[in-house]
Amino acid sequence: RKEVEQDPGPFNVPEGATVAFNCTYSNSASQSFFWYRQDCRKEPKLLMSVYSSGNEDGRFTAQLNRASQYISLLIRDSKLSDSATYLCVVNGRTSGTYKYIFGTGTRLKVLA
Amino acid sequence: EAGVTQFPSHSVIEKGQTVTLRCDPISGHDNLYWYRRVMGKEIKFLLHFVKESKQDESGMPNNRFLAERTGGTYSTLKVQPAELEDSGVYFCASSRPTGGSYNEQFFGPGTRLTVL
Predict the structure, then answer these.
(1) What is the structure's pLDDT at B1?
(2) Which of B89, B110, B90, B116 is nearest to B3 (CA)?
(3) Chain A neighbors of B93, CB-CB under 8 A
(4) CA gap B96, A10 in Å, rounded
(5) CA neighbours within 13 Å on the CB side: how many for B104?
(6) Beta-carbon contacts of residue A42 (< 8 Å; ≥ 6 apart)
(7) CB-based contacts of B28: which residues, under 8 Å, 6+ apart?
């Protein structure tokens, strides 16, 4: 079983739609959580950190459920520019260092 | 501020040859990480430097991979001799000296390595 699991998609949605991505992680000792965005053949870039209380940044809302070891990302009013791969990242402390564990990513394509 | 830079952007080599990848972190970032993405798989951690010290190299695949960060600035990752399964995209990331578990890592554009 992978440490971080995501539905690879692709999710094809029309402009203006709301789309939700989910991610589960296996290590209950994981300490911090992120959503990164990766455009084709580019580097991952931080979209938002995910806190236990949930957090919102414009059209993006992230939720964390530690009990269920589950993270979500909601995108409202999708734009063409939201088309990308969304990477769920879990940060855990092992061997005295923080280490990012990535999911395989969920591909989103927003259609005109 | 300038971002993380990596060189080369692409490298095509034959099996058995040696390749050296370079990463220049953001100035002032003590933490430097190497990751690799093999086609169809997730990005995987290789190792972590704090300044010039290897903090965690648990993700290094085998002893054909050697990472260095002399002087605590840029880092190199050498693969010698390269094998077909080493093909993939090698990302470098850096982060600030402090910040705890929510310390953001900034990624470079990656080096796409193809071993023929």
Answers:
(1) 66
(2) B110
(3) 100
(4) 34
(5) 12
(6) B109
(7) B96, B97
Best of A30, A95, A98, A102 to mutate (most B CBs within 10 Å, chain B): A98
Of the pLDDT bands very low, low, confident and very high (cuts 50, 70, 90), residue A44 is very high
Residue pair B90/B69 in contact (Cβ under 8 Å)? The answer is no
Give the rounded percent of residues in chain A with a pLDDT score beyond 70: 97
CB contacts of B42 in chain A (<8 Å) are 2, 4, 102-105
Full DSSP string of A22-82 = EEEES-TT--EEEEEEE-TTS-EEEEEEE-TT-EEETTEEEEEETTTTEEEEEE-S--GGG
Integer Cα distance of B109 and B4 in angstroms: 8
C-beta of residue A109 within 8 angstroms of C-beta of residue A50: no
The yes-or-no verdict on residue B19 having pLDDT over 90 is: yes
Q: Does B48 contact A4 at a Cβ distance shorter than 8 Å?
A: no
Mean pLDDT of B32-37: 96
Chain B CB contacts of A44 under 8 Å are 43, 91, 107
Q: Which of B42, B90, B102 to mutate to test the interface with A (most CBs of A within 10 A)?
A: B42
Whole-number Å distance between alpha carbons of A4 and A102:
6
CB contact under 8 A, A32 and B110: no
Give the chain A residue nearest B90 (alpha carbons). Answer: A43
Mean pLDDT of chain A: 93
8 Å CB contact of B48 and A87:
no
